[in-house]
Amino acid sequence: MTTTNALYHYCLRLGDDAVVLGHRLAEMCSRGPFLEEDLALTNIALDYTGRAQLYFEYAAGIENRGRSGDDLVYRRPEREFYNHLLCEQPNTDFAYVIVREFLFAAYDRFLLDDLCASKDARLAEIAAKTLKETRYHLAHASDWMIRLGKGTQESNARMQRALDALWPYTGELFEMDDTDLQLLEQGIAADLHTIRSLWQTEVRQTLQRANLQQPADGYMHTGSRKGIHTEHLGHLLAEMQYLVRAYPEAVW
Prior knowledge:
The chain is built from eleven helices and no strands. It is mostly helical. It starts with a helix and ends in a 6-residue tail after the last helix. The mean pLDDT is 96.
């Protein structure tokens, strides 16, 4: 694989994580437990969507086949999406929303910190631009983890149930394939092995403060690097891509 192709796919992965998780959080608009939190979740969704636009526009330029960033979002089939499986998990209840955001934001915070030193100037620029908002995402989710984990017996039980259900999707966050290894060797990609250690420390400390039990590292779901997803992504894309597919000649 050439460096150009590897970088293109790497940007797709980063963009796919952002756009899929952003869409999931956008589904919470008007469904937050109170007004301030409704606004917070909506703003976080916008952060991810804005970041996705940066990644997809860069990927489209790298590909250089006349496609736009919008084409990469709205005209790719499910098997050509490479977001982590964690990002596509549904908003089962507020506990799932917070636990999913916490687990991903902890990973994302250290990923972007690493990418700030990337030898690819554009990736480093995007990482530097979005790191500040990601620190807020992590602080926001961590506060809710502690607040609900140390709350009532019911809130603690719901948080633990969500954590147990979503934990098997976290192992995939740190998988490295040929694309990662090739770009890492060139100083472009992040080192996920180092990030995993930082993530584990961050998660462990927060769970201890929240009176939540860290699940055992048993079976871990995988497949997104090959475009294999849970059933949830297909439903999400059917909604997200509907307008463009229904009116393919429309312009805005």
